[in-house]
Each structure stands twice: as structure tokens, then as C-alpha cells.
Amino acid sequence: MSPDRLGGAPDSRVFELLGIGFRARAQTVSELAALAMREETAVRRDLEVLADDGYLAVQGDQVRYTAPDQVVADVVRRRSSDLSAEVLRRLADLAEVVGQLPQLTRDWDTGGAGQQLADVEVFHGHEAVVELWHVKQAKEPSLRTDVVLPDASQLYVADPAMQRVWHEASQGEGRRARVLASLADAVHPAAQERLAQELEAGVEIRLMAEPPSWFWITDESTVAVPLVWGESWPTSVMSVRNRAVAGMASWMFERMWERAVPARAESAGWDPLLTLMNSGATLEAASRALGISERTGRRRLSEAMSHFGVGSMLELGVAWATARPR
């Protein structure tokens, strides 16, 4: 691997070159350079980056490609080894890699002469997210569903029929539904009734400041991602039935879930409050998200300061961060 990369994800220019290669199945470096209308030396440099991560292999002037689903999964597994202080930075890096998957999958299928990568479905329109889930449930009802929902504003007011189906699919023996939502939605006045309904129905909800993108996984076999990674409520989504891809997305979800805070936590401790404030929330917003008053929040901060023997919020932040398990 090039020393200046430091384990980071290839930039968009490199993935653009890979997409051209997938679509045209260019067999040589010179052919790929001509198609990309770039200097051959620059193309070789970018191919070295792609070869480091396993997307392709270059022998002399010959280029051999690898299907992107397994490669992306391998990249994620390799980069997941260090889960200490760099975990948040690494999650951002992995999100960048995952974000390239929809386009790379389409490019692979375009140039593959019928060699389909996986069971893929694409949905478009404002109701694409809802339509995809209903189609998936009709074909094969899921037992476990994990959803990252950066923007829940479309769901503040429940559709009773859809909500009933959602709750039926998430309740019962062996069933589970988990939602990773944004702090902004959790404290929005218009969302409070819906939030209470979901928690009462047994849906597990945790909060983080800014979830990276909408996506969901069902039964570690199917993953749905937006065609434009990073969209909070996408209007074009792709469902991929592939255990390697779903397993990689599940790993990402679990890492975020571990660092998120349960909505309206009943714990009397200060840890959830400090976790939210550490991610940028104000005391007022963090307290509301946890279903406690700001006065109670202040009392918990005072208890934490006494526990750690510190006299300021700055000292508390340092002491708490040091004491947290890595």
C-alpha cells in the first residue's frame, strides 16, 4: 500500500476509473487509459491503489477484475481490526467504501454479459423506502431488521396500516427491530408521540448525533442502501440480497449501535447523558432525548463530577472519556 494513503479509502477519481473498467471490461492498462482519457502513468498509479485493496490485479499490461461485493467486505474486515480511539474515524472511512457499492454493482452488471452479482432490486420515488420494505416482507418476512434512520421526519405521523405491519413484523418469537435514529428527531416535538408508540411496541431505538446515511439490513442476508450514499431519506434505493454485503453492513451497524445511546433510557446513571453531550448535544437536548428534565440532567452531571472528583465540565469530559471502556 502506498505510504501516503495511511489506510484511507481511495478517492472518487480512483473509483471512477474502476467503474469504467467494470463497464468496458478493459483488459489492458493502455486500453483503460484510452477509455478514461487519462495519461497511462496516472492510470497505473490509481490501479496500484485499487490492487492494494483487491478490486483488481495488474500483471504487466494485463488487468483482471474482481467482483466488488467480496472485495468491499474484505476491505471492511481488514480495516475493522483497530477499534480503539480511532473507531469513529474508521467508521467514516468504511462508510466511504460502502458508499461506492451501488455504482460499482451497476457497473459490474453492465459489463458482465449477464453475470449478475447478486439478487438486486431498485426502487425510485418518494415512497421508495416504504415500497422496498413492503416488497421484501411480502417475499420473505424478516425476523430481524436493523435500520439507520438519519431523518425520520416522514414518519412523525404514523400511517396506522403500515405501522401495524411494521409492529407485527418486529414482534414475536425470534423477532427484533432496532432503529438507530438522530438526536434531532428524538427531541423534535412532532416526533414524541411516534417515538413513544415505537418504544411501547418493543422497537429498540438508540440515538447518535449524525447517522452517516440511511440503510437497513434484514436477517444478515439482505441490505438496502441509497443509490447516493449519505442521503437521509433517499428517493432511489437498491436492495442487495448477498450475505457478504449484508454481513459487512451488519458490522457497521453494530459498531454504531454500541456507541449510541438508548432513547429515553431509564438508567439513573450519567453515562447516556455524557455520551450525547460528547457528540455535540446541549444539556437540554440530551435530557429531552433521554426523557428526563433539564433539572434532572444537571443533577446527574453534578453526581458525575462528584464521582470523578472534578470541578468543571472540561475536567469531567476528560475524566469520563478516560474511564470509558474502549
Question: Would you write up a description of this structure?
Answer:
This protein has 326 residues and is an alpha+beta fold. The protein has 3 domains: 12-110, Arc Repressor Mutant, subunit A (Orthogonal Bundle); 122-239 and 253-262, Endonuclease Chain A (Endonuclease, Chain A, 2-Layer Sandwich); 271-323, Orthogonal Bundle (Arc Repressor Mutant, subunit A), CATH 1.10.10.10. The protein is 51% helix and 15% strand. The chain has 15 helices and 10 strands. The chain has helices at 12-24, 29-36, 40-53, 68-79, 87-99, 101-110, 128-139, 160-170, 183-187, 192-200, 243-259, 271-278, 283-289, 294-308, 313-323; strands at 56-59, 62-65, 119-124, 144-149, 176-182, 204-208, 215-218, 222-226, 236-241, 261-262. The strands form 2 sheets. It has an 8-stranded mixed beta sheet with strand order 3-9-8-7-4-5-6-10, with helices on both faces. Strands 1-2 form a two-stranded antiparallel ribbon. Helix 4 packs antiparallel against helix 5 (87-99) and helix 5 (87-99) packs antiparallel against helix 11. The chain is globular, with a radius of gyration of 22 Å. It starts with 11 loop residues before the first helix and ends with a helix. The model is unreliable at 1-8 and 80-85 (pLDDT under 50).
